[in-house]
Amino acid sequence: MNLDIKKEFLFFGSSFFGRVAKRTAYVIPCLVSLSLSLPAHSKDTEKKKLNLSGSSTIAPLASELAKAFEKKFPESRVDVQSGGSARGLADARSGLSDIGMVSRDLTETEADLQGTPIAYDGIAMIVHKDNPILDLNDKQVVAIYTGKTTNWKELGGSNQEITVVNKAEGRSTLELFLQFFVLKNSDIKAKMIVGENEQAIKFVGGNKWAIGYVSVGTAEYASKVSKTIRTVRLNGVDANLQNVKNKTYPLRRTLNFVNVKPASETAQKFLSFVKDPAAIKIIEDQFFVPL
Amino acid sequence: MIFNAYKIASGIFAILAIAVILCLLLVESFKALSVVPLSKFVTGSWSPSSGDYNLLPMAVGGLAASLGAIFLVAPISIFSALAMNGLIPRAIRLVVRKLFEMMSGIPSVIFGLWGLGYLVPFISRMAPPGASLLAASLVLSLMVLPSAILLVAQAIDDVPREHMEASLALAMSLYNRIRVVILPFTWTRIFSILCLQFARTLGETMAVVMVAGNIPAFPTSVFDPIRTLTGHIALEMPYAEGLHRSSLMLSGLMLCLPSLVLFYLARRFLERVRSI
User: Fold this and answer.
1) For chain A, which end, N or C, has fewer CB atoms within 10 Å of the first or last residue's CB respectively?
2) Does B17 contact chain A (CB < 8 Å)?
């Protein structure tokens, strides 16, 4: 028996992979023990933990807020997970997370939860600065994006084909855009799909007859600094931060934190931290509109 | 002894790294593979929110862009390398070589920016929207061209001196020298160089995302927008959840397979060089 095992081992060891396996054999336990030993060093248990989950729009903002919060209150630890507004509501109700993130206005059926608005988010339609179109209404935008209007001529512009720029699946700007214009992503006949706002601005800035949409904050900044793009008035309202703030611009939404009543001490601390000047700076840096 | 141990350790590390990456991709994409029927990944459309996960357009788009780039790069790099090997005066050759060396150091995203700012608007004037398979192939070929030329030139330099001298002694014409001496010695290496550059173009992400249009549909002409597998992952991964995320992992796995095959091919051709 003993001999057999040895034979097997010898046979196994004579192949290339056998040799590799023999030599790697001691590395794996090393790696495993290393990875096991790492978490043991963190002092999670001593810290006051706060879990946030929900909207992927808010998650990047919340992570930045969490970092600043941890710096200000070193005894606390904040975890942020995304997963959509629905998950944020469900997790907050079930107690899986202390605070849920919801990237839309709260409805009456959600009155059981305490909602804290943290910022506004708006979307601006953008075109190249040389495009004569200044104004669009929502019917025209829908027609452009569903491929019913394919030439700027039909909207009173130049005789040029429209290049429709859309956002990639999963982006929060896409989500709000589809929700506002009551469209399905499969209805949209795009010629170009971009990820980040910056990409949309670069593309529209380089293509005279393109139309796209980006976060209002980004659009306002880019049209001032790079001067290659221009925002388009939607239903006669200028797309700027001012109009998002005073709620006259239609393509906007409120970003909310929700939690069960009453909030825990740490959660309450985090919710009031959102009104801190440092937090407001973070909100602006992420191109959202502070309250 | 120490050097040997170092060699073995780095070899093991390389194998482990690839194994870990493949395992991770397999585990992460298992969720999608177990829930979604396999046929769903090659038919229908791509819209994960309504349960459609067709990855075939991305695979085809990526392959088309890379193949296009390599078809452009192959003749240009071989002819340029031949020219650098004796057709042009030495002084110019040195300058040209330095220029290519500098070009090969330019980060690929710069080529992407150039494509976005100049190439795409230029193509768009001929056939809107401009962001297209053609733009992607051109940017990719520009990206790999300098290093391809330098490597092929190196391969031609390595043709044994005696053979070159013999061809001169025989008063062979330039055409015959290339045909009888240079190409038989270098074609396997040229092929392996092109394989590795092909793998590079397959893996390129940002430069392609900027110029390819990223529409998840089959292209019908070179002026149609395409989406590559790498661009697909880069665009959607940041906000993907659940099955959507898992299907993106599967596209990562789909991306690994041709890369591994290409590396294997490159290796095989290099081994043939050694046996000559």
Assistant:
1) N
2) no
Interface membership of B23 toward A (CB under 8 Å) = no
pTM beyond 0.90, yes or no: no
Hey, is the C-beta of B114 within 8 angstroms of any chain A C-beta?
A: no
Q: How far apart are CA B72 and CA A165, in angstroms?
A: 29
Computed over its alpha carbons, how large is the radius of gyration of chain A? 26
Q: DSSP H helical segments within chain B, as ranges?
A: 2-35, 56-82, 90-104, 108-114, 120-126, 133-157, 161-169, 174-176, 183-203, 206-211, 229-236, 242-275
B83 close to A (CB below 8 A): no
Q: Which residues of B touch A24 (CB under 8 A)?
A: 12, 15-16
Residue in chain A nearest B114 by alpha carbon: A206
Higher-pLDDT residue of A35 and A281 is A281
The residues with which A210 forms a beta bridge, in sequence order, are A163
Q: CA A144, CA B136: separation in Å to the nearest integer?
A: 26
**What is the reported pLDDT for A41?**
47
User: Mind spelling out the 3-state secondary structure of chain A?
Assistant: CHHHHHHHHHHHHHCHHHHHHHHHCCHHHHHHHHHHHCHHHCCHHHCEEEEEEECCCHHHHHHHHHHHHHHHCCCEEEEEEECCHHHHHHHHHHCCCCEEEECCCCCHHHCCEEEEEEEEEEEEEEEECCCCCCEECHHHHHHHHCCCCCEHHHHCCCCCECEEEEECCCCHHHHHHHHHHCCCHHHCCCCEEECCHHHHHHHHHHCCCEEEEEEHHHHHHHHHHCCCEEEEEECCECCCHHHHHCCCCCCEEEEEEEEECCCCHHHHHHHHHCCCHHHHHHHHHCCCEEC
